Structures are given as C-alpha cells and as structure tokens.
Recover the amino acids of this structure.
C-alpha cells in the first residue's frame, strides 16, 4: 500500500495542534465579529452595532454553556424519529442491492480479490452513510423553519445550542446505526466472497525422491477454483504449504489412504487473505550508481515521485534502517516483507521477474551478511525470513556465521540493503515498501477500525450539513456542504497550485490558475508551454493569485474526507495504526466542534418567525 | 456583560405585571436593510397576573407580531418586551409559558402521545409525569381515540386541539394563544372559550389575539385594539363596550298592551329612539342549541324556537 507520509505519534503533536486550533478559532471569531460589527454599524451606527455584537457573542457563549443533555437528547430523539418516519432505512435496501450487484459483477478471480472487495464495499458504505446523513442534516432544520414547527420548540426553554447539537447527535446516531448494519453486512460479504477452498486429487500429486532414490515428499497442483490453482509441496510427513498465488496460500496435508491404496489430501482455508499485518517500518536512503549517498533514487519519468528507482548491475542501492529490532521481538529472525516495483528498459521474459539481492548490515561496523537472492514480481508482497544465524562476508571474502542481533544489529538498529542485479533494469521502491512484520491484528477488528474512519467522515458531513442549514435553505445548504467537501478534497492540489502561482515555479503545477487555465483552453495552448510575459499575461497571473488566495485559505480550513479514509490499509492487509485513528478522531472532533459553534451563532442571529 | 446580565435578571417578578412592553416596535427589513414594513409602532402595554388579555385587530394589525416579540421569536427594532420581568429573548422565561401558534405548527410525523412526550422532555419532566400529563391533556382535548395517529392524519380542528395540549404540557403560568378559535367548529370554539375561562379560574394569565370580535368579547377581561401596527384602544371590555346615554330594559311575560304602556311612559319622560321588540339570539347559541337537541333526540327535528328564545332572554 501507499504511505506517502509517516504517521507521527499522536501524543507528539496533539498538544501543539490543539493550541493551533484554538488560535485559529480565536482568529476566526475575531474576523466574524468584525464583519458582523461592520454590517451592524451600517444600519445602527458603530456604537449600537458594537453593543449588539458584544451582547450577541456573550449570549451565544452563555447559550452554549447552558446546554442541557436531557433537552439535547429529546431533540436528538426527534431527529431520529424524523429520519425513521422519512424511511431512511430504505438506504439499507439500496446497500443490499449494491451487495447483490457486487456479488454478480466483482471478479473473485482477480489478482487481488481482497483489495477489490474491501475497497468496493467500504467505498459504497462510506458514500451511502455520508450522503444519507448529509441530506438528512441539511433539509431538517430548514423544513422545520419553513413549516414553523421550530416555533413550538424555541418557545420552550430550549437553547439554540441544544437545537444544533440535538440535530447533530440525532442524525449522527442514525448514521451510526446505518454504518453498524452496513459494516457488519459488508464484512460478512467480504469474508464470504474471498473465502474459498481447493481440492488436491491423488492424480495431481507426484512423489519426489531425494538423491538416494528414496521418497522425500510429494509435489502437485490443487484444483482450479476462483480462477486460480496453487503448486503444493508436501514433506515426508505429509504436511506442507501451497505456493502463494494471488496474495494467499493454503496449507495442505495428507489425511489418509483409500482402500485402493491412494492417498487422500485436504487443502485448508486461504492463509494471508484476511489479515492485518503490523509492520515495523524503517527509514529509507539511497546510494547512486557509483555507490555515493543520494537523497533519492532515479526518476524514470513517472509523474508520481512516490517511488524512487535504483539501477540494476550497479552500486546503486536502497537502504532501510530499522530501529527497535531485538531477539525478544523477533525470536525467529527478521520477517522481512517487501513490495518491489520493476521498471524494465527491455521486456525480457515477463514471467521471470527481475533478480536482485538483499543484504543485512550493521549500521555502525558495516559488517554485512551474504547476499540473499530475491526475484521481484509486480503486484505481490514478497516475504523473506532473515534467519537468526546468518553468514557474513569477511574482509578476505570468506564467510563466517554470526548471530543476527548480536553482530549485525547495533543498539537495536539494523540496515537492509536492496540491490538490483540485472543491468538496464530498475527496482522501484518507497520507504513504506519494506517492513518487518512485527505482528498481526484481527481482520475483523481492522475492518471495524476502517468503519470508524467512515464514522468520522459521517460526523463531519452531519455537522457541516446542520451548520449550513442554520442559515441557508435546504437545497442551498446541500450545495454549500458539497462544495465545501469538494474544495477540501482538493486542498493539497489547491495548496500546491497557490505555491506554484506565488513562486512562479510552474513545475509544481503547470498550467496556472483559473484564468490562465481558461485562456489555455480557449487558445488550445499546452500547459507545458510557458506563456510570453506580456503585460496581459502578467495581469492574468496577478488576478489568478488574487483569486487563489481565498481558495488557499478555504482549502486549509475545509475538511478532506479522503484523508480520513483508511480502507487502503484494510484492502492492503495492514493493521490501521492507533495513532492514525486517533489523529483522524481529533480532526473529526475539531470540525464537529467548529461546525456546532458556528451553527449556534448563525441560528441565534436569525429571526425564526420572520 | 453588565448590560446583558441586567436585561435577563428578574425584574418586578413579584408584582402583578406578567408582561410589559415599553416603546416596543418592529420594522421588517429586506436583505439590504431597507425598511419593508412597519409591523408594530411603539407599543406600551402591561398584562397583569390572572387576567385574560385580548389583542384585537384586523389582519395585518400587528397582533401576531406583538406575540412573537413577547416570545422572542423575532427581535424588536426598538424598545423592549419583558415577560416575568425578563427580556423576551431570555430562554428561561419559557419555563412558565405555554404557546399555541396560529396554526399549531407541530411535527406531523409524530402522533399525539409522542408529541406531548417530546414537548414534555423539553421541559425536563420525568417520564411518569410526562405520561400522566399527556394522558390527562389528551383526554381533556378529546383525542383519546386518536392518540396513536400521526398528526398528518388529523383534521384542522384535531390539530388545534393537540396544539392546545402541547401549550399546557408544562402547566404554564402564562398562556399565549394566537387565534385560538381559528379552524374550530362552533362546538370546538365554545370548548376553547370555556377552556380559556377555566385557565383564568385556575389563576393563569392568558394573552390571546384574534380578529373574531365575539370570541374576544366573550372571554377577555381587557383588550388592546391594534390597527396598522398602532395601539388604538386599551381597557376593560365592559368599559369599552358600555354605551352611555342609552338605557336598556329587559322583561319577560310582557303583553303587547303593557309594552305599549311602557313605551308611552318612556315617551312622556322625553326618551327618544324607543325600540320595543323581541331580542335576537346569536348564531353561535342557535347552532349549539340545535346540536345539543339533536344529540339528545337523535333522528328528530330540533326544538329550538322556544328554548333559544328563552336562553336569549
């Protein structure tokens, strides 16, 4: 899976982040108060306007502090009843329909069925839950205001904050229930869809003899199921593991012998399909083709620079330094798992893969192990257990067996070197591509964690919808919420575009801002072509910068639901780190709180019966 | 803060004045802040504890605007409205208020029990109390058989009744009724008026607005007449309706000869515009009489003439 940024420890940043959040909130409050004062001052004069703003802010804060959990729950119940009476449960039928079509059209024989099924089901769940709660949230309050039912609520001892919070809580509860049902159904669907078995017939198994002619084991092929079969090697005791294919393998055993003297076999459930690996990741650095340290590898022309490439048949190497390595943690040796991408300058035999080596080195003494051969194949995670006792290469070229942790590790640090052996071929790697498998979590728990990520998105959608509905009509609030989420979705791009515009470095984002882009579309000018710096072009670029500034500000504030998604972890078979979940939880809570407070002030400033 | 605190602090709560407005006015403005309509010109009013106060006026007179200002549903352009000595925008005053809006704006997806349960929760009533009050009020407004039906299935009269029930769920000290008899048939109208009088008997203060003059006349102690957002009259109903300079004589069992004699006596004493004849009943009384008689003697034509006339006398 792709992990572009390291996941920092939650405790290491939450303190400063909260401080930054409060500062941003204070700035936003001051700006909002200034704008309100300006609007009030026009109609009522500066002093009266200031007095109104001052009293409004105090009343809003007092309103929030007076929030009663009982009334909030009463209003939340009302929101739940409203959702149920509006047949919100129909969405479950839609989800069932999606599962039905997924069962028909998703191909269980695909290269990576786990990614296919998990990715699809979690995406469908995310979309449905977020969309339903967003629609419920944006239309509820405007409908109450339009039907004037809100008047019978606000004439009770109900604070504005309770109305806003009650709705957020109510619709979030509805979303939670929907998510729980969809999550369970989706998990059962994925498990049932990817689970399969094979049959190993006696006719497909042949004895294997050793050098002395004695039978040392057996070898064969399983039946073809779900579009795949596995090569099986059984040892002399009748047990063995099938070769990994499509990301999983099976355990095979001899179960007995028939009356006719034929052996019978059993093939176990798939291993490695529904897993949640807990990786220990290291830091990556490179050596160039002359063996000199380099910040990054070679770019092979791909637009995305996530993976860097090392040249085969040269001194180029990718080196990971792992920390916290100890015999207590890895008693069997280092369970190295790797994803190595290949860039071929000539095709060769595409089935063979590209050969390379792995070495383990002591980062302090530079003592290195012998080269362990690997064959890189696209689209699969290769594993290699580096044993506790391993040969090292001495200065004279001789080999000496040493202890992995005692001799090749230094203060728990150890280096793993990857080199490509084939000239004119390249290995592509990223920091997250090599890791030590430090343990395994439960797939079901991991799936639930991913649903928690969807819950965060749902909470933001609900809070955002309710916030917009406090001062906009239903359809307009829906458009505003979707626009906010879309800007948030492209916040990284907008940030890069703004940087590109301000610095004048068109290599960051070629093509310029909105006006320049429009000009290029109309005149059919390529985005790679620099425009002549005529006065008109200069004016256009200035206008673009002016337009992009508020977009940049909005992009830094608006939420990005995509960044909260963790389905890639589950689909890739990796455990979702607790630090990541906590970070996403803090982000969702921050947005929900901001939406709640903004909603209170917007609704409080509104005449609900005018 | 000082100003805000002073505004919401109890003021004159111990006195008899439940509601007071001082220079209260409302101008509706458009998006650009331009004056669109002056709904209420500066208004000074006091409503005292235990009285039924009527706001009377034609459509657009400012009656409902006044009520909305008292309830804090809209903000005054100038002046202030105090309820129980607190600013109208102070939410805590609502603990002691029951409000029936003009068209019972309720949640149509709830049934009667759920409606009262919901509003009871907003007042923080405990479950047993909510259940008891809901049952009592549903029975009082005659919706026991329909208590499980969603409000969207209710007729206008039934919606009005459940609206009244929600207004009384907190046993309020002040009941504000906006056009309380709107949409009710004559029986419902009479029951509503009886209810208003009963509320007064239980020590409640009632403020109602209506453009139905007979309703106001029947139940109100004091009225304020509004027209085009301006207060035109304010006082006790009996004082405002008393016609000075005219003497009314009512008698039963008077023969035509005796009536002529009375007329002659009056003429001798210089009386002018003498009118002697049978008084008229009201259409409401006539209708109620017919309905009661029909219910007492199903399938037979109502006997009204004598009874109605007697009642009128």
């Amino acid at each position: 899976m792709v992990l572009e940024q390291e996941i920092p420890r939650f405790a290491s940043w939450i303190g400063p982040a909260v401080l930054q959040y409060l500062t941003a909130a204070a700035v936003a409050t001051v700006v909002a108060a200034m704008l309100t004062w300006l609007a009030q001052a026009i109609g009522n004069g500066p002093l009266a306007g200031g007095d109104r703003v001052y009293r409004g802010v105090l009343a809003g804060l007092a309103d929030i502090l007076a929030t009663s959990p009982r009334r909030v729950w009463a209003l939340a119940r009302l929101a739940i009843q409203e959702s149920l009476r509006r047949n919100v449960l129909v969405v479950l039928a839609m989800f069932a329909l999606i599962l039905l079509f997924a069962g028909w059209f998703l191909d269980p024989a695909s290269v990576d069925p786990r990614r296919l099924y998990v990715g699809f089901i979690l995406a469908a769940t995310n979309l449905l839950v977020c969309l339903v709660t967003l629609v419920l949230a944006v239309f509820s309050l405007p409908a109450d205001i339009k039907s004037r039912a809100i008047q019978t609520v606000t004439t009770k001892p109900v604070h504005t904050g309770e109305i806003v919070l009650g709705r957020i809580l109510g619709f979030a509860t509805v979303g939670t229930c929907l998510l729980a049902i969809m999550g369970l159904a989706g998990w059962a669907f994925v498990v049932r869809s990817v689970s399969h078995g094979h049959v190993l017939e006696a006719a497909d198994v042949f004895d294997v003899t050793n050098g002395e002619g004695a039978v040392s084991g057996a070898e064969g092929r399983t039946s073809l199921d779900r579009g795949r079969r596995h090569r099986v090697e059984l040892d002399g005791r009748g047990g063995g593991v099938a070769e990994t294919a499509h990301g999983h393998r099976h355990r095979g055993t001899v179960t007995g012998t028939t009356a006719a003297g034929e052996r019978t076999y059993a093939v176990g459930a798939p291993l490695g399909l529904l897993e949640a690996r807990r990786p220990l990741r290291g830091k990556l650095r490179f050596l160039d083709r002359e063996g000199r340290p380099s910040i990054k590898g070679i770019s092979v022309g791909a637009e995305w620079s996530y993976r860097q490439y090392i040249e085969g048949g040269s001194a180029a190497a990718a080196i990971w330094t792992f920390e916290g390595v100890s015999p207590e943690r890895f008693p069997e040796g280092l369970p190295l798992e790797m994803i190595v991408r290949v860039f071929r300058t000539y095709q060769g035999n595409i089935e063979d893969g590209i050969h390379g080596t792995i070495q383990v080195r002591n980062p302090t003494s530079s003592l290195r192990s012998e080269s362990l051969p690997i064959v890189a194949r696209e689209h699969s995670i290769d594993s290699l257990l580096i044993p506790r006792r391993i040969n090292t290469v001495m200065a004279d070229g001789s080999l000496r067996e040493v202890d992995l942790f005692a001799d090749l590790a230094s203060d728990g640090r150890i280096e793993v070197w990857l080199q490509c052996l084939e000239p004119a071929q390249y290995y592509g790697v990223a920091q997250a591509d090599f890791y030590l498998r430090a343990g395994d979590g439960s797939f079901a728990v991991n799936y639930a964690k991913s649903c928690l990520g969807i819950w965060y998105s749902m909470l933001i959608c609900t809070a955002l919808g309710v916030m917009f509905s406090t001062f906009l009509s239903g359809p307009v609030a829906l458009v505003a919420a979707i626009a906010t989420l879309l800007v948030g979705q492209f916040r990284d791009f907008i940030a890069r575009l703004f940087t590109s515009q301000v610095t004048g470095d068109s290599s960051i984002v070629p093509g310029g801002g909105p006006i320049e882009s429009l000009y290029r579309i109309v005149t059919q000018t390529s985005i790679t072509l620099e425009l002549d710096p005529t006065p008109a072009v200069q004016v256009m670029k200035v206008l673009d910068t002016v337009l992009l500034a508020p977009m940049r500000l909005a992009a830094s504030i608006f939420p990005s639901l995509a960044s909260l998604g963790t389905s890639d972890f589950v689909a890739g078979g990796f455990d979702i780190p607790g630090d990541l979940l906590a970070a996403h939880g803090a982000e969702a809570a921050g947005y929900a709180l901001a939406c709640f407070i903004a909603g209170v002030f917007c609704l409080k400033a509104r005449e609900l019966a005018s | 803060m000082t100003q805000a605190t002073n505004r919401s602090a109890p003021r004159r709560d111990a006195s008899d004045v439940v509601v007071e407005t001082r220079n209260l006015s409302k101008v509706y403005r458009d998006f650009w802040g331009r004056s669109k309509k002056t709904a209420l010109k500066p208004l000074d009013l006091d409503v005292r504890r235990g009285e039924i106060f009527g706001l009377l006026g034609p459509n657009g007179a400012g009656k409902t605007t006044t009520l909305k200002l008292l309830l804090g549903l809209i903000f005054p352009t100038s002046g202030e409205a105090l309820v129980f000595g607190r600013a109208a925008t102070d939410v805590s005053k609502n603990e002691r208020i029951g409000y029936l809006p003009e068209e019972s704006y309720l949640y149509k997806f709830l049934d009667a029990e759920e409606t009262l349960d919901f509003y009871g929760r907003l007042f923080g009533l405990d479950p047993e109390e909510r259940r008891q009050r809901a049952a009592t009020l549903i029975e009082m407004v005659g919706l026991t058989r329909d208590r499980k039906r969603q409000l969207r299935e209710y007729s206008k009269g039934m919606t009005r009744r459940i609206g009244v029930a929600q207004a009384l769920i907190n046993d309020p000290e002040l009941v504000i009724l906006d056009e309380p008899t709107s949409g009710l048939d004559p029986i419902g109208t009479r029951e509503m008026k009886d209810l208003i009088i009963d509320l007064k008997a239980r020590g409640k203060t009632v403020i109602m607005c209506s453009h139905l003059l007979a309703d106001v006349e029947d139940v109100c102690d004091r009225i304020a007449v509004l027209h085009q957002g301006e207060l035109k009259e304010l006082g006790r109903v009996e004082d405002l309706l008393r016609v000075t300079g005219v003497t009314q004589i009512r008698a039963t069992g008077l023969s035509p000869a005796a009536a002529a004699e009375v007329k002659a006596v009056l003429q001798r004493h210089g009386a002018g515009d003498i009118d002697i004849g049978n008084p008229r009943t009201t259409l409401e009384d006539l209708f109620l009489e017919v309905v009661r008689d029909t219910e007492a003697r199903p399938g037979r034509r109502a006997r009204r003439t004598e009874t109605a006339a007697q009642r009128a006398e």
In short: Chain A is about 50% helix and 20% strand.
